[in-house]
Amino acid sequence: MAYSKKRLIAAAMAGVLAMMSAFPGYAASRKKITSVSVSIKADIEPETDFGQEIIEIESSSNRYSVDGYEILNEGFYWTEDMTPEIRITLTADDDYYFTALTKDKVTLKGGAEFKKSTRQQSSSVLLLDVTLSSLQNSLKDMEGITLSDNGIATWPAISTAGSYEVRVYREGKIVGTSLETNTNSANCRERMMKPNETYMVKVRAVNKYDPTVKGDWTESNSVYISGEKVAQFKAEGVDICLAVIQVGSDPASSVYVRNKKKACAYIGVESRSYELPEETSEEELIKLVEELNADESVNGILVQLPVPDHIDEDKIIRTISPDKDVDGFHPVSVGRLWIGEKGFLSCTPAGIIQLLKRSNISIEGKECVIIGRSNIVGKPMAALLLRENGTVTVAHSRTKDLKEVAKRADILIVAIGKERFITSEYIKEGAVVIDVGMHRDEANHLCGDVDFADVEPHSSAITPVPGGVGPMTIAMLMNNCVETVRK
């Protein structure tokens, strides 16, 4: 007997329904599971074998349960460059079955990403293929931190850590700012100089691939430092000497030199001052710098800029030894900055970065506009902002539509050298404004490149002049002086 196509289909459907009714798994009374949600917590250490990882997978649903996982990656052990892939098995309760689930129907908590889902065993089992966070972004928990009574903190190295942050605590209160080190040890003596007190440190790792990824702070043991031990620290200490050279008597330069001397005295750095007359020749200045280069008792050399017109500024900068270039202007220092090597950083740009960070102003992903392209501020500022993952534009005297360029900025840094040049017309509402300039107006008052009174109402944060960038420049100079004895 011949059946029409329509009747053949109907007969086939009836046969399938009859077959389904014969198996409990296909009972018509089963309810659909149309979405799932699982929480995944993974602890995977690079350079360990498969199976040593700790992966916890949970679900709060009473309609299905988690029945384990399998590793989909090839190989036998975890490496830093891996992105873990696993297959999670979910089993439905007897009264339920899984429908076909797409990405929008699968909720993954814990940073995992959905790849695909597959149903098995009459839709009673759902296999979820997911990827976990790259192991490049992982950080093993700190452990085994030891603080000795000599002020040295040590800990086991973490393979994915590029650096470590260290905090020193005295009687439970933090001492100074965090130390940073690229090794698995830190000399904490300078923060342990108060006698008859108990100290400890906290350390956290910073990921070498993504510095925004940081571990948890972990404590060391406690150490009691006696008066005798502090005396030993002082006896073993290192003296630091900064030579400051000023040619002529430029008023702004005199202010900066005076403030630098005060800062040296404040932190215990010896300051040698060389105040030379305006008519000092280039040869005389070069000879003095070369003598200071050779003087082992001098750690840092600073020639206050600008120098008189008859002296080649670039030639003087190149004469300073790169190992004593605490201003960060030498071509070697600049080169190290641009290729990301450790070295002296130009003080004003470095101070601005610290000012933003310590004001909790994020740089990453922000539109950063620098007005001014000098070797002292504009160019090194661009390099440091790029290090912090900012999107950087450098504007200058030949920039077209400067106002429109400036108004793009989330962070606007002005080093144009013109008194109160930047007004509110250059500012995007809510922008952060950093004023590097310093001038004396007609009333003999200090002011900057930004018209503070006009711009301040339109900004979310703004630096004053004086009292803004200037102190940070001097602070970073002192930091560079200290770095000369850490090299």
Structural notes for this entry:
This protein is an alpha/beta fold and 487 residues long. It is 24% helix and 29% strand. It contains eleven helices and 27 strands. The protein has helices spanning 5-21, 227-235, 251-267, 282-294, 313-319, 331-339, 347-358, 378-387, 402-406, 452-455, 469-483, and strands at residues 31-33, 36-43, 54-58, 64-71, 85-92, 96-98, 106-109, 113-120, 125-131, 146-147, 152-154, 161-170, 173-181, 185-187, 197-207, 218-219, 223-225, 241-247, 270-276, 300-303, 367-371, 391-395, 411-414, 431-435, 439-440, 446-447, 459-462. The strands form eight sheets. Strands 12, 13, 15, 16 and 17 form a five-stranded antiparallel sheet that branches. Strands 22-21-23-24-27 form a five-stranded parallel sheet. β10 (146-147) and β11 (152-154) form a beta hairpin. α7 packs across α8 (378-387). The radius of gyration is 32 Å and the shape is globular. Mean pLDDT is 87; it is low at 1-27.
